[in-house]
């Protein structure tokens, strides 16, 4: 455990007594509290908010089955400096499998926004679909200091992406989104969003048509691009669109579990213009599944001299 932080792995007491032990511990200099997947219930939360941690800046309550009814409790905590927040919220404390027709996650987000924290980082973890009303609650919230938005725990549809286009987050640096299949029309909303400082962008479900639109995005400071878990065959056509991306600052490209074949990879090697690329992940791609696959490290290193990290299989190779 570092100074000013506590993690549930740092000699944690029995899970049911975690909040009580933490509150009794004092620790007035605590800045970072990680309580991911420790089964905190309503009673535990009501105890936790009594913690005298005026310097708390990061709170992670992910993978606990939080009910909507508990969220107002957070506003009673005297933690005015919280800037990073992660949480999993379920209706009535149980996961919902009912899809887009229910707006319980919209209610959850509305209540979160009323807690009053000036968030710079918001991570929402769930297994459900994020309704358009929920995204609307996010967009209308006063989060002008927001720098990181991670919605990969939710599946969002085209309407929700279009709603994101109305956001006013001028300081946003990192975005992570999860879609089933992103079409060209929806991608058009993304590239027109005013995120002038964007450096890290991650999305699942990219198609060839949406890639042809995304690569037109005006993200001159983009450093990390993650386009993972695509079931759509990317091939040469998709790769041809990817290499047209004008991202001179790109240092990390993640294509894990992507439908990219040998022909597509060869085209990327031949046509890409990312001189600063230092990290590449092509694990679980169609290319790697080819019987008798031989590492392309020499070719990669020849194309990108600054390459330091390469993941072809499940292991990370340091190639510096």
Structure notes:
With 320 residues, this protein is of the alpha/beta class. It contains ten helices and 13 strands. The protein has helices at residues 18-24, 42-48, 104-113, 132-140, 158-164, 184-191, 208-214, 235-242, 262-271, 297-303, and strands at residues 5-7, 32-34, 58-67, 84-90, 121-125, 148-150, 174-177, 200-204, 224-228, 252-254, 279-281, 309-311, 316-318. The chain has a 13-stranded mixed sheet with strand order 1-2-3-4-5-6-7-8-9-10-11-12-13, with helices on one face. Helix 5 runs parallel beside helix 6 (184-191) and helix 7 (208-214) packs parallel to helix 8. The longest helix has 10 residues, at 104-113.
Residue share in β-strands: 15-25%
Number of helices: 10
> Strand count, sense and closure of the main sheet?
13 strands, mixed
* H-E order: EHEHEEHEHEHEHEHEHEHEHEE
Strand order of the largest sheet: 1-2-3-4-5-6-7-8-9-10-11-12-13
- Give the CA-based shape: elongated
Q: Cα distance, first to last residue?
A: 31 Å
Percentage of helical residues?
25-40%
Low-confidence stretches: 10-16, 92-102
Integer average pLDDT:
81
Oligomeric category:
single chain
Number of strands: 13
Q: What is Rg?
A: 21 Å
Secondary structural class: alpha/beta
